[in-house]
Amino acid sequence: MLILVPEMTGWLDALIQGVLLGGLYALFAAGLSLMFGVMRLVNLAHGDLIVLAAFVILVAAERLGLDPFVAVLVALPVLFVIGFALQHVLLNRTLGRDLLPPLLVTFGLSIIIQNGLLQIFSADSQRLRAGAIETASIPLGGGIAVGVVPLLTLLSAVAVIVFLNLVFYRTPIGRAFRATSDDLEVAQLMGIDHRRIFAIAMGIAFVVIAIAALYLGMRANFDPTIGPARLLYAFEAVIIGGLGSFWGTLAGGIVLGLAQTIGARIDPEWQILAGHLAFLLVLVVRPRGLFPRALD
Amino acid sequence: MDAGATKPTRSFRIETAGRSSRAAAAAAGVILLVLVLLPAVAGRNMIQDLIFLFYMLALAQCWNLLAGYAGLISVGQQAFVGLGGYLLFALTLLGGVNPLLAIPVVGLVCALFALPTALIVFRLRGAYFAIGTWVVAEIYRLAFAQFKTLGGGTGTSLAPSVTSSVPGIEWVKTMLDMRAPAARDVISYWVALALMAGTLAFVYLVLRSRRGLALGAIRDNEAAAAGLGVDIYRIKLAVYVATAAATGMVGALIYLQKARISPDAAFSVLDWTAYVIFIVVIGGIGTMEGPVIGAILFYLMEHYLADFGASYLILLGTLGILVMLFAPRGLWGLVAERYGLTLFPMRRRLVVCGSETISPEA
């Protein structure tokens, strides 16, 4: 039997926690990856939307007295409709050859969501209370244990990726997603109503956002201002993984999570910085990411 | 114009200025002179308000050149505001450099930082570039939070010995019969005015030059510009580095005036990028006049509505979205479209002397 010295245990623990943290980042990133993939939308409000979804789950849990895992089921259809409407009413108008409108509209949206949440919920830290499961952990031996919630996060991330791949490659709507993504004009000629397709894609992205928000809210405190940082993590995971591949996004999230926990192990103040630097390093060494599929 | 009519043969010349723009140039000269002399009569509050207006306008004009012309939509310009502020603190507090001398040095150093930064973020295209610049700004913020000599995460203040060492304070005190803090504001005001006017003049001259023609071509259609032989990468790099230097100098001035810096404030995406984007978009992106209009409007809103806090920001965000959707060329775009007005002419018009003026889109 392998006997681990404490120093090694610490590092091994950091690696395991890094992979699990990567699951959370992959969840943040999956929705963004979907929007990139289908409508080529770079959504600067993505982080704020995750925080918004966390507040929706919070309200559902508190008002109806539900466990967060049940509350998210209540929130899912609501968020799907919000996403569908947002794309149909607002974001579809911004898509075109010019990059500026989608960027600026989502940037404005980010400011509106942040300040709207501040007005309604104040700047206080919130948390989704899930009872005993929050602190439950599974011992792996050698003084290392994995938390149940972090493990569920990673498993959910894998499930979401499998689900998205199934939707994309095994269903008629997925075929429409790929068609509009490959060539919008030809897809339209084939009778695809791209506005509806984009709205459905956004609805699905919001479902993924809701799942990400559930784990964001259970794993740590959140408040209305933390959205932009989540956007950056999600973006970094997508770029590290390579555009156009959901499995790449998962890998990107894990790389980011590992970089952060390893950085934090060296000096707690370096956690976030280490993640950003890993992103820059990938950009320098492999500008198209680790597992690129799309061409742009 | 009448002179051309007497010539027997038709001759051609290229002109950029029109009557309205010549009047605008004269007016700009008069306004500049009035602004220079203003501290003699204006109160301290007004001087401070104008400092704010000037540096926001300078930042907006830089972002306009970057995003409106070179197509480099950055949401990370706070990197250079913060870098400029921190470099000013480092040079004056640790290096003992005179604050006014430090500002141009800061510009130079910011350009040096911008070069390797550009080499990395330029690997990201279009919208990805935008978020990439934001990541870079975060890296700068987190890195400066590590400098314990400059206060780490909580920041630090300029020593009174530094703020009072700004040259000219004594002169202003005696000339305008002021106390030292007010005299310090007047010096900052003149520096802000110089930076603002300098930035405007720089952007205008760049846009009127050969490079400006190339930039206008990139703005209108990047692929076509490349096809006509414009070296897109080089020109974008030059614009990125030049605007970083200007933005850094403005940042240095902002924090000389504030005399207190912290990483969260100096690298704030809201203060130094969101507001700036708002100014440019509301006023009219891709025009010289737009940011001027936008900055004045923003100043008025900030003055009368900032007390509403979050609601004010919601209003700004909503206005930005509405303008982007329904008047993508901004307020100035609406005016220019309706009246065919340009105050800072960039278009080259072919004038056929003795016959009517042909004015093609340039």
In short:
The complex is a heterodimer of chains A (296) and B (362). By secondary structure, chain A is mostly helical. Chain A contains eleven helices and two strands.
Describe the fold and architecture.
The complex is a heterodimer of chains A (about 300) and B (about 350). Chain A has about 300 residues and is mostly helical. Chain A has 11 helices and 2 strands; from the N terminus they run H-H-H-H-E-E-H-H-H-H-H-H-H. Chain A has one domain (about 15-120, about 145-285): ABC transporter involved in vitamin B12 uptake, BtuC. In chain A, strands 1-2 form a two-stranded antiparallel ribbon. In chain A, helix 2 packs parallel to helix 4 (about 100-120). The longest helix of chain A has about 35 residues, at about 5-40. Chain A starts with 5 loop residues before the first helix and ends in an 11-residue tail after the last helix. The mean pLDDT of chain A is about 90. Chain B is mainly α. Chain B has one domain (about 35-290). In chain B, about 70% of the residues lie in helices and about 5% in strands. In chain B, the strands form 2 sheets. In chain B, strands 1-4-5 form a 3-stranded antiparallel β-sheet, with no helix packed on it. Chain B has a two-stranded antiparallel ribbon with strand order 2-3. The longest helix of chain B is centred in the middle third of the chain and has 29 residues, at about 180-210. The mean pLDDT of chain B is about 85. The interface of A and B includes residues 101, 104, 283 and 296 of A.
Q: Per CATH, what is the topology of chain A?
A: ABC transporter involved in vitamin B12 uptake, BtuC
Number of domains of chain B: 1
Question: Outline of chain B, from the CA principal axes?
Answer: globular
The global form of chain A is globular
Oligomeric status of the shown chains? heterodimer
Largest sheet strand order of chain B: 1-4-5
Number of helices of chain B: 17
Sheet with the most strands: spatial strand order of chain A: 1-2
